[in-house]
Amino acid sequence: MVVEAALNPILPSTGEGDRGNAYLKDLLRLLEGQKVRSHSEIAGWLQELRQRAAYNVTKQRMPIRKDEEWRFTNLSDLQQHTFTAAPTVQLNAPDIELLTIPEAATSQAVFVNGRFTPELSNLTALPEGIFVGNLAQLPVEQSLKLVKYFAHIEGANEVFTALNTVGFPDVAMVWLAQDVIVEQPLHLLFVTVVEDEVILTSPRAAIIAEPSSSLEIVEHYAAVTPGCPDQTGNTPYWTNAVTEIWLEENAQINHTRNQRESGDGFHIGKTAVAQHRSSRYTCNALSLGAKLSRHNLEVWQQGEQTETTLNGLTIAGREQTADTHSLIALDFPHGKTDQLHKCVIDDTAHAIFNGKVYVPQNAQLTNAAQLNRNLLLSPKARVDTKPQLQITADNVKCTHGATISQIEADELFYLQSRGINADSARSLLLDAFAAEILNRVPILSLRKRLAQCVACRTYE
Amino acid sequence: MIKENSPVILSVRNLTANVDGTPILKGINLEIKAGEIHAIMGRNGSGKSTFSKVLAGHPDYEVTGGEIIYQGENILELEPEERALKGIFLAFQYPLEIPGVSNLDFLRVAYNSRRKHSGLEELDAFDFEDLVEEKLDVVQMKASFLNRSVNEGFSGGEKKRNEILQMALLEPTLGILDETDSGLDIDALKIVANGVNQLATEENAMVMITHYQRLLNYIEPDYVHVMRDGTIATSGGKELALELENRGYEFLDEESPETAEVSA
User: Fold this and answer.
1) Would you kindly state where each structural domain of chain A is located, as residue ranges?
2) CA gap A144, A121 in Å, rounded
3) Most buried in the list A84, A414, A452, B119, measured by CB within 10 Å?
4) Is the torsion defined by CA of B51, B57, B61, B63 positive or negative?
5) Could you tell me which of B70, B92, A429 has the C-alpha nearest to residue B78?
6) Angle at alpha carbon of residue A100, lines to A146 and A201, rounded to 5°
7) pLDDT for the residue A3
8) Domains in chain B, ordered, with CATH?
9) DSSP output for B123-150
């Protein structure tokens, strides 16, 4: 498929002498040693899948700035580090207390360094008809069905996705049976434990929503560090995460992706979504953490009349680089997509937004809207934005746009003239900018906490 | 209402100001007492709006000379918010839209800043809502306005009514209305004018900056000043506005400077 080639070009290996090549080989060696448990019926399939992914990686190299998809994001900093495999670590409930969500206290699955940790999880509120756990626990019937889903969404060969497939130590599994409506939000918490070793974790999740089921889910990346995770000065680490989501006919998922890695972390994450007929998918992607982050958010339409809503908020300060590459690949009529991605960039931080929407001939009567708004708070803050609509269908309604602004003196003056001092006025305007996205997060406590974090991150 | 012994609220003396190095105000003298309503008229570019922004403390305007004495204090060095807290209110010609901030929250923050400054306890969300609903009547606004983002998607008339609502809540000592009547249809104009008339008291003063005599049919000024080239060229009673209406601003150009020296 043309879209596939444009989006996930295989980066051809350039031979032995290349530094990126050697680096990737080392990573591969590191990950190939990783074990994963599954039902014995599918163990052979899984092994073959991982071997194929490893083979795929050997044909590629690390991305460089000359690659169109990595033009603005420099991975050389990441390649300064020699990563080791994330060990199995014991955590106690108090270690993650600040990371929990009250609304999901009894519907929380915790993965430490990528591995399911039942002692920290509590799934007692979940109704009949939803499975939440890991791959090893997945019943045989569903394990056999998984074979036709897992790693089948397009883009699976992209180098970091393939690396994850080679080395994930476990899989977070969510399986919703037909017609099951889960009222309470599900919290998937992926914690990396940062100690002295420079580690690589490879969390993996698979979410399957059978026809007419419905779920609110929070996918949450965070670190447990000796010092404050929002600050720098802790050991670096790398989270290379992949989450695949399948929405069968008429299924509905509201997905909040909360990326709060520590200030020294690297985060490369993939969200791959397959949407069947009449399904509704919403993603609230919040990117506040990590020294360098890249989120690849890809939605593949598999049937008519789907609805896709992508809300994004990036808050970047200090020397952070925060990159979002999104894709909505339509291929059927009557699709509706709505995307709003906002970035607040401070200090010498750098945000990148690349949003592709493909509307080929088959996707007649598509209604697609995309907007990227950026707020620069300092003279050295930087944003690169590329809204990208590719339309070949002739009976569609599509809009896209991008804005870059700063806090205007006139806005401040308006608030000041009402007796609000300059600092409060500035924070009111910033909060308002972020609130447009935060207000779409369906969980109140999370919304409040994020609003506080936005406040404390954007003004010292 | 003109009263001989009313206290002076605002006294502007030889005020000059620049924008980007260009002189716009070239020596303004004006005195305003409690209970008075003043209208400032003039052509585009005569300095009317600049004058209102300088009074409110807009940072883009550089005061190069003269003084602004407000309730006995020179306020030139004060920040816009400090002036606001002392009771100066500017109703904007183009009120800004603030997406994401509800009108109710905005009004409450502004109102509580004022209360805190006056040493009063801040009102909580519930008490404030009661208060604001009372004030809505002043400008015939529906309560649903409160839940919308500040000015976002408001029509021109709604924005101006929202300005008057803010004025009703903040109860300023000096209200300055910068072309609040521009772009309003007659129904909206009546609502806005009616609002201002309700808010004008013996203790406060209002300054209306306007292009059009029409506004003065609904809010009767005690004084009319005409600005030309950064100064007040002439002042008079409300009959001056009628004269302007009949003869246009050209008649100013014919008059000698002496007759323009009418003090307010």
Assistant:
1) 2-303, 408-460
2) 25
3) A414
4) positive
5) B70
6) 50
7) 53
8) 8-260 (3.40.50.300)
9) PPHHHHHHHHHHHHGGGT--GGGGGSEE
Q: What is the DSSP string of A120-171?
A: G-B-TTPPTTEEEEEGGGS-HHHHHHHHHHTT-STTTTSHHHHHHHHH-S--
A405 contacts in B (CB within 8 Å)?
none
Round to whole Å and give the CA distance between A425 and A419: 9
pLDDT above 70 covers a percentage of chain A that reads 95
| DSSP 8-class letter at A263 | T
Q: What are phi and psi of A395, to 5 degrees?
A: -125, 70
Identify the bridge partners of residue A391 per DSSP, sorted by sequence position. Answer: A359
What token pair was written down for A237? Answer: 């680490």
- Classify residue A44 by its DSSP letter: H
Single-letter amino acid, residue A12: P
Q: Give the count of beta carbons closer than 10 Å to the beta carbon of residue A291.
A: 20
Instruction: Please indicate whether, in this complex, the C-beta atoms of A433 and B114 are within 8 angstroms of each other.
Output: no
The torsion angle over the Cα atoms of residues A215, A221, A224 and A230, rounded to 10 degrees, is -120
B83 neighbourhood in chain A, CB within 8 Å: 417
Question: Considering only CB atoms, which chain A residues are within 8 Å of B170?
Answer: 418-419
Instruction: Indicate the pLDDT class of residue B255, thresholds 50, 70 and 90.
Output: low
Facing residue for A428 by CB, picked from B79, B85, B109: B109
In this structure, what token pair is assigned to residue B118?
Answer: 């006056």
Q: What is the pLDDT of residue A341?
A: 98
Which one-letter amino acid corresponds to residue B36? E
DSSP letter at A212 equals T
ipTM of the complex: 0.92
| Interchain pair A429, B98: CB under 8 A | yes
Chain A residues in contact with B101 (beta carbon < 8 A): 428-429, 431-432, 435
Any chain A CB within 8 A of the CB of B58?
yes
Dist. CA A456–CA A317, nearest whole Å: 11
In degrees, to the nearest 5, what angle opens at C-alpha A186 toward C-alphas A183 and A188? Answer: 175
* Distance of alpha carbon A361 from alpha carbon B127, whole angstroms: 58
Q: Tokens for A364, please give them.
A: 């007649």
Calpha distance A350→A71 (Å, rounded) = 13
